[in-house]
Amino acid sequence: MLRANKLSEAGLGLTAPNPIVGAVILDANGQEIASGFHSGGDHAEVVAIKDAKSRGFTDFSQCTMVVTLEPCNHQGKTGPCSEAIIHAGFKSVAFAVGDPNPVAQGGAVTLRSAGIDVAEGIEEEVVAFTNRAWLKKIKIGKLWIITKIAATLDGKIAASDGTSQWITSDNARRDVAVLRNQSDAIVTTTATVLADNPDLTPRFENGNNPSGRVKNPVRVVMGERAIPPEFAVHNEKAETRLINSHDFASLIDMAQHFGWNQIMIEAGSTFNSALIRAGLVDEIVLYQAPSLLGAGKNFVTDLGINTLNDRISFNYGEIVKVGSDLRIQLLKEISQDLNLEGAR
Fold first, then answer.
1. Could you tell me how many helices (H) and strands (E) the chain has, helices first?
2. Cα–Cα distance, 130 to 7 (Å, whole number)
3. Could you tell me which residues come within 8 angstroms of residue 39 by beta carbon, excluding any fewer than 6 positions away?
4. Alpha helix stretches (DSSP H) within the chain
5. At what angle do helices 44-54 and 81-88 cross, to 10 degrees?
6. Helical ranges in 184-323 per DSSP H
7. pLDDT category, 344, cuts 50, 70, 90?
8. Residues 329, 319: contact at Cβ < 8 Å?
């Protein structure tokens, strides 16, 4: 299941409005014979079955399908995965997370009715955490919002003279490209665009995108000032959408309209602080450089907090060294109804 979960991550940024899913097929001896993940087309189970058949394996009567999400039970852009598994003749199925989508749930019942052994809840918390953006959207109707911050040890994102390139290392910037690639949209402000003229697309060395993704995340620019036509956000590398305000409701409405699972914020301290103050940030990914500026621009501004009891708290997630920097994942308290407690 952990192998299937890792496979599912390759679909981040590719599957909206649907979830990420990974699948592994095991033979009678528990050895992997094929695998697959959902990348916007065939579902993971079907990809894995096709992978097995491409290797000349056609008899699944003693095989187990291991999949991160309960096989779907409805006809959408593709047929029901439960029917594909039954048609292939699998002996058993193991999945981690039950499908909370009322349109697609019920696969386990269908499989059992067909005489297939079904085990559920395998590594459920770990898998649910990986699929947290889609699960939050389906269960409580809100997308997952990540903000990326590059700062010094003392929390500065720019020096007193305004210089900010580059606070973090080349390795950290390559890591950011992967993070961008996993989101459905990159959101910034007119202030950031006019100050820095960012491209806001994943930039991989030699154009080598590890996911094989062709289409870049949508760029969303919020604010009332005009962006000159020669600025990078107007290039053809990605779609750009403009919101002529800083109204978060407009951003959320846009995300819901397009079915986005996860968006990433790349903006300055004023916009980030407003998002945090409004309780909209689910996750902060902080790239912390081992350097000090003393004076300069902080990554957060006044949050309207006057007493320690009113502080805004996050939980530590994964902390890893990336080049000379630390990548620190900070998460809001995750509701138990998302089955995510303990997954970190």
1. 10, 15
2. 11
3. 10, 11, 14, 15
4. 2-8, 44-54, 81-88, 107-113, 124-130, 132-140, 170-181, 190-196, 248-258, 269-277
5. 30
6. 190-196, 248-258, 269-277
7. very low
8. yes
How far apart CA 65 and CA 190 sit, in angstroms, is 48
CA 166 to chain centre: 25
How far is CA 144 from its chain centroid? Answer: 8
Supply the DSSP string of 129-170, one letter for each residue.
Answer: HHTHHHHHHHHHS--EEEEEEEE-TT-EEE-TTS--TTSS-H
Residues in Cβ contact with 183 at an 8 Å cutoff, skipping those fewer than 6 apart: 12, 13, 146, 217, 262, 263, 264
CB 262 within 8 A of CB 184: yes
Backbone angles phi, psi at 38, to 5 degrees: -80, 125
pLDDT-based confidence at residue 186 (cuts at 50, 70, 90):
very high
309-340 exposure pattern, b = at least 16 Cβ within 10 A, e = fewer: eeeeebeebeeeebbebbbbbbbbebeeebbb
E strand or H helix that includes residue 283: strand 283-288
Strands of the sheet containing 92-97, edge to edge, are 32-37, 22-26, 64-69, 92-97, 117-120
Largest CA distance in the chain: 70
What percent of the chain clears pLDDT 70, i.e. is strictly above it?
92
197 neighbors 231 (Cβ within 8 angstroms) = yes
Contacts of 237 (CB under 8 A, 6+ apart): 199, 201, 216
What's the rounded Cα separation, in Å, for the pair 250 and 245? 8
Query: What is residue 335's predicted lDDT score, i.e. its pLDDT?
Result: 54
Catalytic positions? 45
Q: Cα angle at 122 between 121 and 125, to 5 degrees?
A: 75
- Tell me the one-letter amino acid at 52: A
Q: Flag whether pLDDT at 245 surpasses 90.
A: yes
Nearest-angstrom CA–CA distance, 22 and 220: 29
Is pLDDT at 47 greater than 50 in this prediction?
yes
For strands 297-298 and 156-158, give the pairing: antiparallel
Average pLDDT over residues 295-313: 88
Residue type at position 23: A
